[in-house]
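Summary for the steering committee. The consortium agreed at its last meeting that each partner would contribute one worked example illustrating the joint modelling workflow. Our contribution is presented below. We chose a case with several input lines so that the handling of multiple components could be demonstrated. No manual editing was applied between input and output; the record is shown as generated.
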Amino acid sequence: MTSKYNIMGLTNFITGILLLAIFGAISCQTKTNEGKSAGTMGDIVKDIHSFSQPNEAVVRHMNLDLYVDFAQKQIRGTAELEFVAKPNAEKLILDTKNLKIESITYANGDKAAYKLLEEDPIFGSALEVKLNGSINKIIIKYATGHGAEALQWLGATQTADKTDPFLFTQSQAILARSWIPLQDSPGVRFTYTAKVTVPKGFLVLMSAENPQQASEDGIYHFKMEQPIPSYLMALAVGRIDFAPIGVRTGVYAELSMLGRAKSEFSEMEDMLRIAEKLYGEYRWGRYDLIVLPPSFPFGGMENPRITFATPTILAGDKSLTSLVAHELAHSWSGNLVTNATWSDFWLNEGFTVYFETRIMEALKGKDYADMLSALSQQGLEEEVANFMDSGQESDTKLKLDLTGRNPDDGVTSIAYDKGYFFLKYLEEYVGREKFDVFLKKYFEELAFTSNNTERFLIYLNENLFKKNGLKPMADLNDWVYGTGLPESMPKVHSARFEEIDSALLQWKEGNIAFSTEAWSSHEWVHFIKNLPYEMDQKSMTQLDAQFDFTHSGNAEILGVWYVHCARHLYQSSFEAMEQFLVTTGRRKFLTPIYGELITTAKGKDLALSIYKNARPNYHFVAISSLDKLLY
Ligand code: BES
Ligand code: ZN
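What follows is the complete predicted structure of the assembly.
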């Protein structure tokens, strides 16, 4: 594939050397950005999901002093914001959603004039603070509103240990504004400190340097010295304990989960070393993970220094740890180099799925990584077909048009899996060695900055194609700006899944005597997903009699099996399925099951009655998707 262009080798070699020198210089500059600021004023890409105007006045540092009130389900305190403004700038604009602003003062103690603008149901209210000469710090006294969307307040019964309440936040994509007044845009980075006061005995964790045991007085101090975007602001408060894994890694969980968590995630230190070897030094100090209560709406969230994770990955056999690889990978793709706007979300997630797969390949071998790719490919093909069928063709573009929409609409397998296959295609086109050199350099040179699709393509052209004397692929723009799946989509061959496919054939022919001993949960998921779309009660019963999917301890298996159960109104599963739906808040599992249930009248009744019961257990992000689906 590459040899065709080798005649151009010499000139490109020279250009390459020149570029190397130029980017070497830039790299030195960006490195000094850490801990201060990233980028200069005036170069922040316009973000339609934030009211802020960071090219006029931009927040660079924040000091929080917060009190967590479990009885009122409210966070109260102050946010001290340090900013840099253009000389003629008149105001600092912040994002808020449902925040009660009590007062705003300048650093000199004077009261600041401010306006809280009318609330938009998705984006909240702009908070405009009048600037005062050269004063570059304001102090906002505020409290969170009822139902603050980032916060989930859990009663003791919703936790594992059932002794005390629990609080966690989920800020991505634009929910940080519901618990902190800030410039809620991924193009804006700031450092922060925080003092957080909670009832005695509770442990507090943030996306910052974290304690490993509860303090005597319920007061905690945090520091995040690397500049981060707002969606990575995170807080968790509960009866939480810590167990170390390696020198830089460890897990937090409620006591009754801690042992399981420690053994499930025993590969974390290895993953960290593998990741560093691939794409450069880990820049965040420690890497820990907290296992949250089951209502956490995602599988994982890459909060810097501390991944937030669902307990549904505690399978007992380390079979679902690619999720840890994924969140760890975000420490580079996402947290170090961040999508500048939510329309560039694939830069976060597509890169991360690629990186995740590379980590898993190094950890468990190519066979294993091929299964992940195959699952990704099947998921992607289904998603694209769904979009095409429902007239949402333009949502299959990598670069998304989210004008007037909630960025949550962009959380589909397009960003993840089409993004992943685009990078895999690039890798195959230039060869893995060159691609790895490129990626490592990308993370190093653009560390602590935000990037958009257009800038990425320029960078790609300079540093991957020109530098290696290659022409860009002819369909590069199709991949990024086109709909559907390009012809050049890499085809995945998974040897381990081919065996499953032959087992499926046997099963369809009535032969159930194939051996399943060596199957991991990925093989099972592939098997279940590829069972015939239509099955009679007899087949369902037979499958369950043989494999007891209905009571599997593996949430991924339950997630795909219950879709069949919902489609065929398979009664014997209802009790367990309801139990799963009521206790698990992970949206990825909930939407397909509810979505399948509502396709029949009887199923819809069931869905609505379960949902009524389950809804109070879910986080806002799951509720907002499911309300749309069910009501
Ligand atoms: N950053 C995402 C989760 C997210 C995306 C939250 C957009 C809010 C808005 C996280 O890294 C993620 O992708 N989680 C996946 C895990 C995975 C292995 C693909 C999940 O939660 O399922
Ligand atoms: Zn992710």
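Confidence is low (pLDDT under 50) at residues 1-39. Residues 531-630 form a domain with the Serine Threonine Protein Phosphatase 5, Tetratricopeptide repeat fold (CATH 1.25.40.320).
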